[in-house]
Write a structure and sequence with these properties.
The complex is a heterodimer of chains A (395) and B (284). With 395 residues, chain A is α/β, with parallel strands linked by helices. Chain A has 14 helices and nine strands. Chain A folds into two domains: 225 residues, no CATH class; 121 residues, no CATH class. In chain A, α9 crosses α10. With 284 residues, chain B is an alpha/beta fold. Chain B is built from nine helices and 13 strands. The chains are: A alpha/beta (395), B alpha/beta (284). Bound molecules: adenosine-5'-diphosphate (ADP) and magnesium ion (MG).
Chain lengths: 395, 284
């Protein structure tokens, strides 16, 4: 009861202040940017990975005409940094499955730009690898289709396509029709149990892919920032002291603050997520992870606020903390930048967790594990904050 | 109601203690005053007694609770008014009181009634952020009595208020006193201490110099003085005589015999004069 009335009072104050509106307006701005400025199409359509299992001179004859009329242009070879991977490859016809384990390495592929003969615009870039394995790895890493092409004794060409597991049946039948029964469609799916990286198997389009980092930014990071701001508003007014000499416990005051943040973040995150993602995510999991992680970050904010008298003194650590928490966004967008220590920054698994929720076949177990970790961590930090607050009340 | 034995409090380990080895008792129904200049350690003492500051050294028992074991329940019968007002600026006067009332397990007073009592009628729906300092102070004061406290802590209840409002606050405190409320009051205003307190402790530099009733103090330390105005050679002369001083008494008798007395009245020493006599320092 006291917790409820404290929460309602805090919400009243939040609605009369401006942080709540800043958060929701920022979410609306991000939504507009996502809808207007970010194209849905995934990058993957613009790349193709090929391995020609034949002599180089024969390969050259394939492209000779295109090079001459300029629809294809050979450009500088490209280096791809590929992470350590474990790729499971399933033969669509026989159902046979084999798993390949790869080390982290740099793969160089020849690059050919393909131009549209009618418009003259760049259509796509073809990358030609030296080995079949390189082709599989790059196709997998870059989330696109790869193919192996070879000639039989009668110079008839054969294709083996490597697709990501999630491509639609329609897309796969299209490949069958294209090549008749000359083709074997192989399926590789990710088994990310042992190695998990931001940017693994992707079923999100460009726009959707931006939602998890923004949710983490608008949820956890803003929550962490705003709870500190609220505490300093209260410290300035001295109202915590009045609370401390009431029969209600200080933890109820702190928890009501966390609840206010969770309410605010529910608004702001929904503003971004629902219009962009529609019904695709598992919203139950989404809100569970959102609330738990926001609680944990609010607890962290409360803990930090207990060490400093005012916002100015807390600013250094507050700002530094936010910077560190934003670093995992780099790994999220730049797959080749993925140092091990980064995985211990809490926002790293959080972004991954939200991504799993957004994906059609997301890993619910992973999300629930993160929920458990954030819940336990959040409660511990909250208890510490409570102890600290009781000690730092002054006359 | 309050029992304090050998209480000391340090804010920083190297520094001088803000409160140094003080002991006192407050009886049920009594209004006990801490009189001393700014920085004497009054608020610090109240802080320890209300549990806002952790008890470092000494034994403190308040309203039947040992303050070293924090129990929030005890605040159902305690009211605390702060030296620096602390109300939610974004809530109206009424919302501030109504919210605070919900934190108690005991019957609470009507918010509007308290607002009227401290002279804020008509301002109940104004946000406290728009209040003047004095108005906020009155709201903080009103809030401290919302649970009909048996024990009432008042840190500088009239400081910074204009005289008319200070008089209202004094009346409210006297009315509560008549109802049997025990009060612990700090002030650097000798009139407040004199008019409201049953007993007063003189505190300076964290130490209690003496504890007594204002009346006893005046009897003990106050010298009875007589101000006389008389005519001498066509001019009005003014002189003050100490009635406990033999020479002064004789002089006074002389004046009365020989001259035409215009005015003559006795004057008691004020608590401030006694404070200066005892501690060697004033109240500001
Ligand atoms: N939060 C604090 N930190 C450090 N020193 C303090 C603090 N509060 C008060 N003091 C010091 O403790 C002494 C007593 O202060 P205080 O109890 O506020 O006196 P009073 O209420 O009698 O004016 C003063 O010297 C003051 O400077
Ligand atoms: Mg004080």
């Amino acid at each position: 009861m006291k917790l409820l009335s404290t929460y309602l009072k805090e919400m009243k104050i939040a609605f009369r202040g401006f942080y709540f509106y800043i958060e929701v307006v920022m979410a609306a701005i991000i939504l507009i940017i996502l809808l207007v400025a970010v194209k849905e199409s995934p990058v993957s359509k613009e790349k193709e990975f090929l391995f020609y299992d034949m002599d180089e001179e024969i390969v050259d004859t394939f492209f000779k005409k295109a090079f001459e009329d300029g629809t294809m242009v050979r450009v500088d070879p490209v280096d791809f940094d590929v992470k350590a991977q474990e790729i499971e490859i399933t033969d669509k016809e026989t159902g046979e499955t084999k798993t390949k384990v790869f080390e982290k390495e740099t793969i160089t592929a020849d690059a050919i730009e393909v131009y549209n003969p009618d418009t003259g615009e760049l259509d796509k870039t073809m990358f030609i690898t030296d080995t079949e394995e390189d082709m599989i790895r790059l196709a997998y890493s870059e989330k696109t289709i790869g193919a192996k092409i070879w000639l039989d004794d009668s110079y008839k060409s054969h294709y083996v396509y490597y697709t990501q597991g999630y491509e639609t049946e329609r897309m796969q039948s299209l490949l069958y029709i294209l090549h008749n029964d000359d083709i074997k469609v192989l399926n590789d799916t990710a088994d990310s149990l042992t190695v998990r990286k931001l940017g693994d198997v992707e079923v999100l389009n460009n726009r959707q892919n931006l939602v998890p980092p923004f949710i983490v930014l608008m949820g956890s990071m803003m929550g962490y920032f705003i709870v500190i701001a609220y505490i300093y508003l209260d410290k300035g007014e001295g109202v915590i002291k009045a609370f401390a000499v009431s029969p209600s416990a200080v933890w109820k005051y702190l928890l009501s603050k966390a609840f206010v943040i969770m309410t605010t973040v529910t608004f702001s995150s929904s503003v971004i997520t629902i219009p962009v993602m529609g019904l695709q995510p598992n919203y139950l999991l989404f809100y569970v992870l959102l609330w738990i992680s926001t609680f944990a970050f609010a607890a962290l904010g409360l803990f930090i606020a207990s060490f400093f008298d005012n916002m100015t003194k807390a600013f250094g650590i507050l700002f530094g903390g936010m910077m560190v928490m934003m670093l995992p966004a780099l790994s999220y967008f730049i797959p080749s930048f993925d140092p091990v220590w980064m995985r211990y920054v809490p926002t790293y698994p959080l972004m991954q967790g939200f991504k799993e929720i957004m994906m059609i076949n997301g890993d619910a177990k992973y999300v629930l594990t993160q929920c458990g970790i954030f819940l336990v961590g959040g409660i511990i930090v909250f208890l510490l904050a409570n102890v600290r607050f009781k000690k730092t009340l002054t006359v | 109601m309050i029992s304090v034995k050998n209480l000391s409090h340090l804010y920083n380990k190297e520094g001088k203690p803000a409160v140094n080895n003080i002991s006192f008792e407050v009886e049920k129904g009594e209004t006990f005053g801490f009189l001393g200049p700014s920085g004497a350690g009054k608020s610090t003492t109240q802080g320890v007694l209300t549990g806002l500051l952790k008890l470092q050294k000494g034994e403190v028992n308040v309203a039947g609770y040992d303050v070293s074991h924090v129990q929030n329940k005890r605040f159902n019968k305690i009211g605390v008014s702060f030296e620096q007002s602390n109300v939610y600026g974004k809530l109206t006067a009424k919302e501030n009181l109504e919210f605070y009332a919900k934190l108690f397990d005991v019957e609470t007073r009507d918010a509007q009634e308290l607002i009227d009592l401290v002279g804020l009628s008509g301002k109940e729906n104004v946000r406290a952020g728009e209040f003047s300092k004095g108005m906020k102070h009155r709201l903080t004061f009103a809030r401290s009595m919302i649970n009909n406290p048996e024990l009432w802590f008042l840190d500088e209840p009239t400081t910074g208020l204009d005289p008319a409002i200070a008089a209202t606050i004094k009346d409210i405190i006297n009315a509560q006193k008549a109802k049997g409320t025990t009060a612990f009051l700090t002030t650097h205003n000798m009139y407040i201490a004199d008019e409201l307190c049953d007993r007063v402790a003189f505190i300076i530099d964290g130490e209690i110099k003496l504890i007594d009733t204002p009346k006893n103090l005046k009897l003990k330390y106050g010298q009875k003085l007589v101000d006389v105005e008389y005519l001498e050679g066509g001019k009005t002369k003014k002189e003050t005589f100490k009635t406990i001083d033999e020479a002064d008494r004789n002089k006074l008798a002389e004046v009365i015999k020989k001259h035409d007395i215009q005015t003559m009245h006795t004057k008691e020493a004020t608590l401030e004069e006694i404070f200066i006599q005892v501690t060697g320092r004033g109240l500001v």
